[in-house]
Design goal:
By secondary structure, this protein is of the alpha/beta class. The protein is 25% helix and 25% strand.
């Protein structure tokens, strides 16, 4: 189920690949997908593979994606940045956009689509939403 609560890009530093730092707020001005794929999610590799297939849609919409998952889950596409959130700080900030029950089920993951102004456009709880995100990227809201 998608929610459209008003949430903003978190201004928080995450550990990226190769020791780089990643801050979701650095992507303000672009659409940004934040994929939470917890280590407990058995299909983290499959989930990342499905989202990597969106690279053409990301480029067409001048959008980027941060995949917060186990760095061993796969190799990201050019507009996908791998990051980790071991303390759960980013999850705690963005989970406010989910229902109380969905927040309690953090182990199922979630996807957040942030608009160019940094506000939440859509969120999806759980895995398997790559095609829904592709469709939402094509919508003009």
């Amino acid at each position: 189920m998608a929610f459209t609560r008003t949430c903003a890009l978190p201004d928080i530093e995450l550990s990226g690949a190769n020791g780089a730092r990643v801050n979701p707020s650095d992507f303000a001005g672009h659409e940004l997908i934040v994929l939470f794929c917890p280590n407990k999610l058995l299909d983290a590799t499959q989930e990342l593979t499905e989202f990597n297939a969106l690279s053409d849609a990301l480029a067409f919409n001048d959008a980027y994606m941060i995949a917060i998952c186990d760095p061993k889950a796969g190799s990201p596409a050019s507009r996908v940045t791998l990051a980790s959130d071991p303390e759960g700080f980013a999850w705690n900030l963005l989970a406010e956009c989910l229902s109380q029950q969905e927040r309690a089920e953090a182990d199922k993951g979630a996807v957040f689509l942030m608009g160019r102004g940094g506000c939440l456009k859509r969120s999806w709880h759980g895995a398997g939403h790559a095609q829904s995100v592709r469709q939402a990227l094509g919508e003009r809201m």
